[in-house]
Design goal:
Elements: H1 9-14, E1 21-33, E2 37-43, E3 51-56, H2 62-65, E4 73-82, E5 90-101, H3 117-122, H4 131-153, E6 157-158, E7 164-165, E8 177-178, E9 205-207, H5 212-222, E10 224-232, E11 245-254, H6 258-279, H7 281-290, H8 295-304, E12 308-311, H9 312-324, H10 341-352, E13 356-362, E14 378-386, E15 390-397, H11 402-411, H12 420-424, E16 433-439, H13 440-448
Parallel strand pairs: 3-5, 6-10, 12-13
Antiparallel strand pairs: 1-2, 1-4, 2-3, 4-5, 7-9, 8-9, 10-11, 11-16, 13-14, 14-15, 15-16
Helix pairs in contact: 4-6, 4-7, 4-13, 6-8
The structure holds 4-amino-1,4-dioxobutan-2-aminium adenosine-5'-monophosphate (4AD) and magnesium ion (MG).
Magnesium ion binds at residues 383, 391, 394.
């Protein structure tokens, strides 16, 4: 048996080599049958589709098949045959079955179909073996690949920004501290607070909330870069769209103005969605059929539309008008308010019926690094708002004037002593530049049609949840 190389099920299902012997290995999804013949649905993760294994009673007795239960891992040698059954073209007529690992039916947690997504989160170590998570994880891989492809083809360089940092890019104070100090015996500093002199870095450090600041340094040398890595936010928001650990893609481009940035964002997202339709259609169709009947149509519809470009001020006017017409929102709408997801979704889903790029937000609700407009009130921010998701991308043109940037950091309470190196780029060879951050899991929410962000990352980290 070992002389025969293993064939993946995805390849076997495409094969027309009927009558030839093959070796497959995988996990049993189901076994059903009669006294004469058993049908085993085998999945090896390479595709959403199972291979049907036919085990006849002339070759296998009950005793031999006893261990071939749902969840067991087996290797099968057999002959490929055209299937008589509905729904598949090929099946494998087994001549030998080896059981690698049994899965006791009385305790294996994935017995029946249709477990709830909530239940599957409690068994995150096994949920990749379900059709749903197999599909999601394959799509996740393809999206990562698409992203590297998009940027590589356009001459962007993949830049590795650090994960441990001493600066808070977004200035929102939501960082996870990194320390080797013994928390049970913390020493106080003379002027209050904790004495970090014996700490690993000799000063406070944290996990990064964004690779942008370092990305900007790189863009001002390499021209166009992107980062793609994990980011961490200790925000206590238990919503279906927030994770404490999520992956972010942050392109940054020298000489790009905000309009170029918007076009890049639109091209980028459309490329990813087209890639998903081209490369993951079997998995997407499965999710469409089981969770979200409009998924394929919604993905397609994004490709057909030009994203609306809309100023924040006009956006707020539309929302206020909607209120006057009787539409109610949970959170207040007024010029200066940070828009909630319900407002973003109203604009996208009800008013325009297509993605919206909202620009020129009030400077008070945006980060210190955004380029200030001449009106003295707004900054050159851009958020890309998507149906079902709300904000999927946040970005801006960057303030390239040293004095304005330093002053804004000061005003917003960002300690300039921690970002002196960032400020120096505006002293030496500064240039107009722009960039944005795409939340990878938000993109995956959109592409998979899932409604909870905990279901598009293998092991979600959220408040009070770090199992697995
Ligand atoms: O809008 P944000 O905070 O922007 C930045 O971090 C900038 N430094 C990006 C840049 O200009 N280079 O975050 C960017 C995106 C959001 O639009 C959202 O998609 C995602 O990151 N995001 C989250 N995704 C999951 N969980 C969270 N807690 C998220 N916070 C932000
Ligand atoms: Mg944002």
């Amino acid at each position: 048996m070992e002389t025969l190389g293993r064939t993946k099920i995805i390849d076997l299902l495409r094969s027309k080599d009927f009558g030839t012997s093959f070796l497959v290995k995988g996990w049993v999804r189901t076994r059903r049958g009669s006294k004469q013949v058993s049908f085993i649905a085998l999945n090896d993760g390479s595709t959403i589709y199972n291979l049907q294994i036919v085990a006849g009673s002339d070759t296998f007795d009950d005793e031999q098949l006893k261990a071939v239960t749902t969840g067991a891992c087996i290797a099968v040698v057999g002959t490929l045959a055209e299937s008589q059954g509905q729904g598949q073209e090929a099946e494998l007529r087994a001549s030998s079955i080896t059981v690698y690992g049994t899965a006791d039916p009385t305790s294996y947690p994935l017995q029946k179909k249709g477990h709830s997504l909530e239940y599957l989160r409690e068994i995150a170590h096994l949920r990749p073996r379900t059709n749903t998570f197999g599909a999601i994880l394959r799509i996740r891989h393809h999206m990562a690949f698409a992203i590297h492809n998009f940027f590589h083809d356009r001459g962007f360089f993949y830049f590795h920004s650090p994960i441990i940092t001493a600066s808070d890019c977004e200035g929102a104070g939501q960082m996870f501290q990194v320390t080797t100090l013994n928390l049970a015996e913390l020493k106080k500093a003379p002027c209050g607070g904790v004495d970090h002199s014996d700490d690993f870095f000799g000063r406070p450090a944290a996990l990064t909330v964004s690779g942008q600041l370092e990305g900007e340094l790189a863009a001002l040398a390499l021209g166009a870069i992107y980062t793609f890595g994990p980011t961490f936010r200790a925000e206590n928001s238990n919503t279906p769209r927030h994770l404490a650990e999520f992956w972010m893609i942050e392109p940054e481009v020298a000489f790009n103005e905000i309009e170029d940035n918007m076009q890049l964002a639109e091209d980028f997202i459309k490329f990813c969605i087209q890639w998903a339709l081209n490369n993951c259609i079997d998995d997407i169709r499965f999710l469409n059929d089981h969770f979200d009947k409009d998924l394929v149509a919604r993905l397609q519809s994004i490709l057909d539309k030009t994203f609306v470009r809309l100023g924040y001020t006009e956006g707020v006017e539309i929302l206020e008008q909607a209120q006057r017409n009787g539409r109610s929102f949970e959170f207040p709408v007024y010029w200066g308010a940070d828009l909630a997801s319900e407002h973003e979704r109203y604009l996208v889903e009800e008013h325009f019926g297509c993605p919206v790029i909202l620009t020129d937000y009030p400077k008070e609700i945006k980060s210190f690094y955004m380029k200030q407009n001449d009106d003295g009130k707004t900054v050159r921010a851009m958020d890309v708002l998507f149906p079902k998701i709300g904000e999927i991308i946040g970005g801006s043109q960057r303030e390239d004037d040293y004095d304005k940037l330093a002053q804004r950091a000061e005003e917003m309470g960002v300690p300039t002593k921690d970002i002196w190196w960032y400020l120096e780029t505006r002293r030496f060879g500064t240039a107009p530049h722009s960039g944005f951050g795409l939340g990878f899991e938000r993109l995956l929410l959109f592409v998979t049609g899932m409604s909870n962000i905990r279901d598009v990352i293998p092991f979600p980290r959220t408040p009070k949840n770090v199992e697995f």
